[in-house]
Amino acid sequence: MKRLLAVVLALSLSGCALVDAYLLAKYDSNEYLIITEIRTDAGKYKQQCDNSDKSKINAGLIADKTLLFMNYSQHIAHNKNTIAAAEKLNEIAQGLQQRYTDGKVSPAFCKIKFDSISNSAETMQTVIGNKPR
Amino acid sequence: MTFDDIDNALADLLNTGDQTFTTAVAHVRSIAEQIKTSELTADEAEELLQDVQRQLDIINEMSHLASKEKLNTIINVLIKMASFI
Fold it and tell me: Who among A9, A17, A109 is closest to B48 (CB)?
């Protein structure tokens, strides 16, 4: 009966989804550490948005870290969703750095940007932390 | 994409009832509201709206990954069960 149940459950899943899920990239402590650092740094940097000199430096630091995360995740096998999310997170951070390179940035813009980075990183951290051991 | 389109997309995500993403979706919604009311230049508002779309993409990717993680757990439980049959 158990064997029948197992076969029925297995057949009810599409083949592709089954293979994708079975081969899913395992939990990687470095990946988890970097996304945690991005979340923590972004939360801290948001508090300094009223100081434009500090914020310009912070924008460069966070952009370097999201780039590191994207490059680190990029060649881990069966890691498609994390790679795609890392690319989007890096785009958000690079946009902030580019604004500071181009000229003046309003504190409101700076705060919303760091909020977006921090919250997206938290969403990713929650799911990355649940990867199979 | 207009503010209404964004709000509809966010409402759809909230309706999935997945607790993992409820907070994230609520945050994106609050940012979209702030963009409407904050003192921002047109360029800044445009970029922040593009960021809202990027955040929606991140939530979608992570939602797919969370589903795969659940499926991975089920497969491994099934394999263990099969070994006891």
Answer: A109
Selected residue with higher pLDDT from A120 and B38:
A120
The token pair at B83 is 């070994």
pLDDT in tens, A83-102: 999 999 999 999 999 999 99
B45: how many CB neighbours lie within 10 A of its CB? 15
In this complex, do B78 and A9 lie within 8 Å of one another by their Cβ atoms? yes
A78 phi-psi bin (left φ>0, alpha ψ -120 to 50, beta other): left
A44-48, A53-57, A74-78, B22-26: which range is least confident on average? B22-26
Which distant-in-sequence residues (6+ apart) come within 8 Å of B80 by Cβ?
Answer: none
